[in-house]
Amino acid sequence: ATPLAIMVGTGRGAQLGVLVRGPEALEDTRDVQVIVLDKTGTVTEGRMALVTASAPDIAAQHSDDAEAALLDAVASVEARSEHPIAQAIADAREGRKRVKGFRNVPGHGVIATVQHVGLAGEAPGPDAANADVLVGARRMFDEVPDAIEQIAAEAESQGRTAIFAGRVPSDDGGVGTGTLATRTRAVAEAVVVVSDTVKPTSASAIRSFRELGLEVVLLTGDNERAAHAVADQVGIDRVIAEVLPGDKADVIRSLQDGGTRVAMVGDGINDAPALAQADLGLAVGTGTDVAREASDLTIVSGDLRAAADAIALSRRTLGTIR
Ligand code: ADP
Ligand code: MG
């Protein structure tokens, strides 16, 4: 490639709303065959809003006040987390319970000890014991009662995300001390449904990727059902869901089998290793610095159509100087 053509290409990239790290990035852009899109914050806006929060069995067996107190505990724990789901809960509900020993379990959720919250099945209250409250994905719980499962399944089939909460004794040595992937003690008692919205430009960007001959893959830590619902909305057939943060780069590596050139678009801290592993990493400009630093290109506005334009441009630019 001649330096002039590359500079022209890079300048046009800036006009399209794409920042290009270096000249090599344009060649990588031209050659991609598969484009992997992170779901939350990339295909969707990544701003969650709370839809419902309930603890149906606690309400039925105790009282509405007991249900409210348990949900207050959930909000109090989530007030310590910076996850978009936690933010949605914090925006809707102020947590007033005392919390200590907060721990984040990447790809799973959060845990903290909450004062007077009581144990599974009990009503929280001034006489109740302190306990650990787990808040997060289904994989944190070994039992999800029917009333809760129904609420979650209904929400997920609409592309929403359900998260669960349950209580375990604070002296339960397994909680938070090892990896939660192996824990199997908590019963889900509360369910919180949050929704995110698909970016209005995502479906059109995905159509353009297809027209450029790319295979499009949706990659997410979120559950299978919600992932498929979002994929259907934007026209993606291939979904890889329930991927733990540490495993996203491995997914990219396996897609690269046989020399396939893979691009990855992501926004989060969790996405950085996958962005670095990809032949072409594209960061969404509205995401984290860590994601941008791991990437070759940055889509300034977060509009995925700019990624399609960059691929088309790199083919035109470099196509003429081979
Ligand atoms: P993604 O950004 O792809 O959804 P994450 O790895 O951040 O993936 O999270 C995966 C899943 O873990 C979330 O969908 C959610 O179910 C759960 N989770 C993580 N952090 C929290 C949190 N603070 N509160 C509730 N759930 C959480
Ligand atoms: Mg994300």
UniProtKB/TrEMBL annotation:
GO terms for molecular function: ATP binding; ATP hydrolysis activity; copper ion binding; P-type divalent copper transporter activity. The keyword Transmembrane helix applies. Keywords: ATP-binding, Cell membrane, Membrane, Metal-binding, Nucleotide-binding, Translocase, Transmembrane, Transmembrane helix. The keyword rRNA-binding does not apply. Its main location: membrane. GO terms for cellular component: plasma membrane. It is found in: Cell membrane. Belongs to the cation transport ATPase (P-type) (TC 3.A.3) family. Type IB subfamily. This is Carbonate dehydratase. The chain holds residues 422 to 743 of 798 of the full protein.
